[in-house]
TrEMBL record:
Coiled-coil residues: none
CDD domains in the record: ABC_HisP_GlnQ
Keywords: ATP-binding, Nucleotide-binding, Transport
PANTHER family hit by this protein: AMINO ACID IMPORT ATP-BINDING PROTEIN, PHOSPHONATES IMPORT ATP-BINDING PROTEIN PHNC
Similarity comment: Belongs to the ABC transporter superfamily.
SMART domains hit by this protein: AAA (SM00382)
Transmembrane segments: none
Name of this protein: Amino acid ABC transporter ATP-binding protein
Pfam families to which the protein is assigned, alphabetical: ABC_tran (PF00005)
InterPro entries registered for this protein in UniProt: AAA+_ATPase (IPR003593), ABC_ATPase_HisP-typ (IPR030679), ABC_transporter-like_ATP-bd (IPR003439), ABC_transporter-like_CS (IPR017871), MetN_ABC_transporter-like (IPR050086), P-loop_NTPase (IPR027417)
Domain ABC transporter as annotated: residue spans: 2-237
Any one GO MF annotation of this record: ATP binding
Length: 243
């Protein structure tokens, strides 16, 4: 599903990703953790071409992102992304936000599109908010709409970039529960950047620990949290609460 081979990413002179080698298979739920500035968001954003790479090879869903001729719009039809700041269309209702891409990109017939969007809204517990505008719902609800919207295109791969870090603490659990439900589907592959260690522990099959632009550990969730191998990971975990 995702293959990084000796990938290097620079922002100008700054080496943001160094020697990234990583394979993620269909159905895996992989959580990326590490200190601030370690390159987690950058890595996730290379997967759908929001950030380009300068060296190495990156294959996502059979598309070669190291090839400048690759059509990113085609790749992105199968790759959903949920951002920290929701990015809903402010002038469209909750339901319209979800229906837009299937209508425009995939030409899904209107009645079917509406029915699917309502099912997704029900799944995230927001069917009663279909006709509200984004400004009329809370941050946690906005994020749940953003998740429903990312699922509307029936992606094979979902990327989450700190989906709860802009939320008030009491909103976080609802969003994490929705993500947990989605990622338990064995057909869905997910790559999640999060600072929520309890959630990472609960949801991840696999944990990737990054530091200074490099992958320092890549292990099963249980093994990583119980027996981190490197001093850097041990130090990182000792500074945070992982209940
Ligand atoms: N557009 C950019 N231009 C220049 N440097 C950047 C850019 N985006 C990120 N960086 C730098 O690249 C490094 C990695 O950033 P990145 O956002 O990937 O880290 P992160 O691990 O996701 O951090 P955080 O947990 O704080 O979000 C940081 O040093 C950051 O300052």
């Amino acid at each position: 599903m995702i293959e990084f081979h000796d990938v290097q990413k620079y922002y100008g002179q700054f080496h943001a990703l160094t020697d990234i080698n990583l394979e993620i298979d269909k159905g895996e739920t992989v959580v990326l953790i590490g200190p601030s500035g370690s390159g987690k968001s950058t890595l996730v954003r290379t997967v759908n071409g929001l950030e380009s790479i300068q060296e190495g090879q990156l294959i996502v869903n059979n598309h070669d992102l190291s090839d400048p001729k690759t059509n990113l719009n085609v790749l992105r039809r199968d790759v959903g992304m949920v951002f920290q700041h929701f990015n809903l269309y402010a002038n469209k209702s909750v339901l319209e936000n979800i229906m837009l891409a299937p209508r425009i990109v995939s030409h899904v017939p209107e009645a079917e599109n509406r029915e699917r969007a309502m099912k997704l809204l029900t799944m995230v517990g927001l069917e009663s908010k279909a006709d509200n505008m984004p400004s009329q719902i809370s941050g946690g609800q906005k994020q749940r709409v953003a998740i429903a919207r990312s699922l509307a295109m029936r992606p094979k791969l979902l990327l989450f970039d700190e989906p709860t870090s802009a939320l008030d603490p009491e909103m976080i659990d609802d969003v994490l529960q929705v993500i947990k439900t989605i990622t338990s589907d064995s057909d869905m592959t997910s790559l999640i950047v999060t600072h929520e260690m309890g959630f990472a522990k609960e949801v991840a099959n696999r944990v990737i620990f990054m530091d200074n632009g490099q992958i320092v550990e890549d292990d099963s969730s249980q093994s990583f949290f119980e027996h981190p191998q490197t001093e850097r990971a041990q130090q990182f975990l000792s500074k945070i609460i992982t209940h």
